[in-house]
Amino acid sequence: MRYPLVPLVNDLTFPLLLFWFCLPFGLLLILLIIWLHLLLKEGKFYGQMDKCFCIKALSISFPFTALC
């Protein structure tokens, strides 16, 4: 026998196979979106921290440079 007696893909199994083949790609896409969102939030947070640090560093160093 060359061919199986029961076809693997028919009207009943096609939606199930499509779901199981697409599920890993859908999960990877969702994880990628969450990861990129976290990276963007982290970049904004550190950008604000750098600005605050520079302002504090300038305000601390300014009086000492005036004395020199």
TrEMBL record:
Keywords recorded for this protein, A-Z: Membrane, Transmembrane, Transmembrane helix
Membrane-spanning segments: 12-40
PANTHER family, per database record: ADIPOGENIN (PTHR38499:SF1)
Domain of life assignment: Eukaryota
Pfam families, sorted: Adipogenin (PF15202)
Keyword Transmembrane: yes
Gene Ontology BP term (one): fat cell differentiation
Protein species of origin: Gopherus agassizii (Agassiz's desert tortoise)
Protein name: Adipogenin
InterPro entries according to UniProt: Adipogenin (IPR027938)
